[in-house]
Write a structure and sequence with these properties.
Blueprint lengths: L6 H6 L6 E7 L3 E2 L10 H14 L5 E6 L2 E4 L3 H10 L3 E8 L2 H8 L1
Parallel strand pairs: 2-4, 3-5
Antiparallel strand pairs: 1-5, 3-4
The chain binds adenosine-5'-diphosphate.
Length: 106
Amino acid sequence: NWTFDNKEDKSSGAASNGRQILELPVAAIRRPLGRTRGNDQDKVAALMESITAIGLQEPIDVLEVDGVYYGFSGCHRYEAHQRLGLETIRCRVRKANKEVLKMHMM
Ligand code: ADP
């Protein structure tokens, strides 16, 4: 039941740089480096308020490797979604291979 939105593909040629905007389940995004615990809670609270009021204005960046989604940044937006109990989060998804994933793990 993931929705696919290819508006950006059509308007900006996102297909050519290998990026798609997808609404992914928050729970489906692995965060190998984990630490939303180090987040600035004032920022998270401000984002929660803003996301509730106007929605997520800038998708978080996610890598897709062998059908699995990995997030390394966008930690405050990710935690804001978790704390709001939102099931999905808008992501800019880039397909990558294991070598690229390894680089992000370092
Ligand atoms: P993160 O760890 O998620 O990158 P930052 O506090 O470093 O958090 O940055 C917040 C980011 O969230 C900014 O890039 C901002 O453009 C983006 N953003 C997306 N949606 C919103 C929103 N509704 N209100 C405020 N900022 C938003």
